[in-house]
Amino acid sequence: MIDRYTRPEMARIWSQENKYRQWLRVEALAVRAWAELGVIPRDAAERIARAQVSIDAEFVRRVAEVEAQTHHDVIAFVTVLAERLGDDGRYIHYGLTSYDVVDTALSLQLVEAADLIISGLRAYAESLRRAALRYRHTPMVGRTHGVHAEPITFGLTLALWWSDAQRDLERLMAARRRVAVGKLSGAVGAYGNVDPRVEEFVCRELGLEPAPISTQVLQRDGHAEFMSALAILATNLEKMALEIRGLQRTEVREVEEPFRSGQKGSSAMPHKRNPVMCERLCGLARVVRANALAAMENIPLWHQRDISNSSVERIVLPDSCILVDFMLAEAKKVIDGLQVYPERMRENLESTGGLIFSGNVLLKLVSAGLARERAYAVVQENAMRAWAGEGRFSDLLRADRRVTSLLGPEGLDECFDYSATLRGVDHIFRRLGLEEGGTT
Questions:
Q1: Assessment of whether the complete model's pTM goes beyond 0.90
Q2: How far apart are CA 131 and CA 126, in angstroms?
Q3: Does domain 1-94 have CATH number 1.10.275.10?
């Protein structure tokens, strides 16, 4: 577990107490199923159901004490549970193997964690939606290869992140369905000592689908799919954070992440305002991606199972859920508290003297009858002179008779019109369904 990043709700899901509570749910339902089939006395099943065994710190301590002797966590759990139930305890774990309980209960934890992450993702996406609408028509320079390209709006950048979040949501919901499965099929998946009807009953009561086929374990490609969805989500959060980091650089300074009252950026340099929240998001995404790879390594197991997956999953499943839950909350704070500087965006737009409109000039010359290669050469020649500091691009074009003879002053002015260049913004927002009052 990564305590620093663990929010209380997610901590509860992955606590030892909650794990044992889920194990108990599976065991108790299996007893009920056996009783329905007439294998276990009904009165014993009813007493077990009424027993209300408390899964508390003392229970956890006792399981750890027994496990220190048995070196088997499920046996230790069943032993302590039987202690609490007295004579009826002999019916606990009847016909089951350890992973009938462990894997089915793990699915319950994963579904619960997925629901919490989905809620956080929806909240983050809503923050993006509101910000995208706010800055829908705020012009800024678009950059390719880190170099000024053509005008965009900051709202488009936010809308892109919102769109990323919608795909993340689709993937995560699909992955949730994938892991919402259970199995009580015995030691090798062939129902040697357990009736398939027990599995059907338990899974139905838990809201899970019975795995159509299993070995001693649920197949790990489902867990890997879930982890991959988390990894892509974390990487999209990194994508957002990396862009903000770039825009916060001193020489750019178009956007800044929140800087709270009393916050300090450096022990040596009091002036520093560092993008630490975004840097944290970028760093944690690396961990989640690495965990997804570990989950894929868990897919191939020896024959009907080995235990190599177990030690890995005890780390990567809770840690990835914990980290992504934290990252979403942190990302929402970044977007909600984002400092945006439209004036600086305008300064940067105009800093190249109109070079960002070179494509407009090229097309205008072609439309006026100049061959494309010739038009490109004329525009590039003036652009290179502007880069070399010989004057503003727009002024150099106005002094070039090859351009003015075809376009004239008004035609040339049209090439430098922001509104014309950004006329597709509303179309993009409509296509995304990003409108006032919309929902995620």
A1: yes
A2: 9
A3: yes
